[in-house]
Sequence to fold (382 residues):
Amino acid sequence: MRYSELLEYKRDITANNLGEKFLEKLTNKDSSVDNESIDMDNPTEAIHMYLSKVEQADPTPNKQYTVWLTRRYIDDSITLFEDVLSTWADLLYEYHQLKIRRKIPSDLMDINKFKSRESLNKFFNSIREILISDVTNKKEEIQKGNAKEIFNNSEVRIIIPNDEKAACYYGQGTQWCTSAKNNNMFDSYDWPLFILIPKQPTHEGEKYQVQVTSGDWMDETDSPVSIIDIAGRFPTVNLKEVFGKYDRNAWYLTDYMSWYDTVEIFDAMIKLIISNEQYIIENYVDTSRDKSAVADFKQLIKDMKGWNAESLSESVTEMMDSQRERLVDNGGFTMMAYEYPDALGVWICESTGAGYDLFDYIVDTMSVELVDNVPTFKQHQS
Fold:
């Protein structure tokens, strides 16, 4: 055991050294933390309260892993605080038990060597491999729980866990907080969760967990992956249809809509703009900031009138790309179909300098709604 591990952990010192950055991560960069529970008028108390939670996740009596856990959370190697209390609490318990029994190889003995997300994933997987191969480490059998298999073909099985036991069973080998023994977060997620298990994995342990409504698309290391990547990983599966039977929001996701449907909807919105050109100019184009706004808007209308299918498709791509940065979430494009008027409004305003009165007109007079599971354009009275 290293000398550094024998040093006594003191919360006051940790709070003094790391408290400010720790609180910043908790309050500004972590969707898993309820900010209403943090009293910003008393930051010292908040820091101590959350450090006490990290201490509870540390299985050692002298809290020798607490500072390491706190640092890894601050530097984003561990993204979410809920993962500190669940997935990593689980792993550190197993790790410490293996150390006591002298089952840890020398290259894994100093946990302080592991700092980056990549090195933590390697550390996590190494401990898992030791646990699997250690015949003396008697593991309790994990119960299957209650789950529903909603899809099964040559590429992938897709499963909805209906309870915590099922989430643990099908999440074995992952870093998901929904598969943890400690502080399992299954009940905090909106139903349904989708677990995708490839039939021909590209690497050991490949799995994906999806929660459509919250935009959580995660691989087995609990790292975000894009919707497009998962759809491309399983090209024979219409994820919109499979997910949409159990979560209506799946039908709204832009990346599940055919390009034909997307262009058709934008075409309808653009025709409405063209037909109301003069009314929009008189009431919604703001020239106070940009005197050329009217001329620019007229030129855009002229261009729109001349668009064919190819130019419309190119312009729709430009519109969606302009909105992509605004709506990106965890590395994936998660714009919903009902946000199409927003995308068109932002694109026109930024292209012409027409001002955001025009944006308000667009989102107030247009919508894309779900009708019999089909995204459909609707016009409203201005």
Summary: Residues 1-6 have pLDDT under 50 and may be disordered. The first helix runs from residue 3 to 6. The beta strands are 147-152, 156-161, 194-198, 208-211, 216-219, 328-329, 332-333, 366-371, 374-379. The chain has three domains: 3-133, 147-249, 254-379.
